[in-house]
Design a protein that fits this description.
mainly alpha, 2 strands
């Protein structure tokens, strides 16, 4: 089965991809500092602050001293944002998606269309990478064959 065939199959919803293994969360905790979230997600504290500033992150609660306190729900959202980043979706489109989510259920058709367009781009990139992999495998095979052939000398 090719990568493209695998992508064309039904896949697990993104929300179901977020597991305890993805975010090693202590039992019973639902408040995390920015440094803990940075460690969980692999995103820098600067990136997390920027995401909040541009509207990609929903409202993040603050402690009485003004420090950000992220919730498990925030971690789930950031895991999804991380997947969107991997697709190559432009940040502006991610912000648009976040705004649509905040607007509620009535925006589901627009959200679906945005994700479908991104999926189409991903499938195309996978096909391009599959073609590239085929070329690389062929080229590697020619070198493997050259290593097995007896040496020819011009003597």
């Amino acid at each position: 089965m090719t990568v493209v065939q695998m992508v064309n199959q039904q896949t697990v919803p993104a929300a179901l991809c977020v597991t305890e293994e993805t975010h090693p969360r202590p039992d019973g905790r639902d408040q995390y500092t920015i440094s803990e979230v940075a460690a969980f997600t692999g995103m820098s504290a600067h990136t997390l602050r920027w995401y909040e500033r541009i509207g990609l992150m929903p409202h993040v609660d603050r402690s009485n001293t003004g420090q950000r306190r992220f919730s498990n729900r925030d971690l789930d959202w950031l895991a999804f944002v991380g997947k969107l980043r991997l697709t190559g979706m432009p940040v502006a489109d991610m912000v648009t998606y976040a705004e649509l989510v905040r607007e509620g259920k009535r925006t589901e058709p627009q959200r679906k269309a945005l994700l479908e367009a991104t999926r189409t781009d991903v499938v195309q990139r996978i096909a391009e990478l599959q073609d590239t992999l085929t070329v690389l495998d062929y080229k590697i095979g020619t070198y493997a064959g050259a290593e097995q052939a007896p040496e020819r000398t011009g003597a």
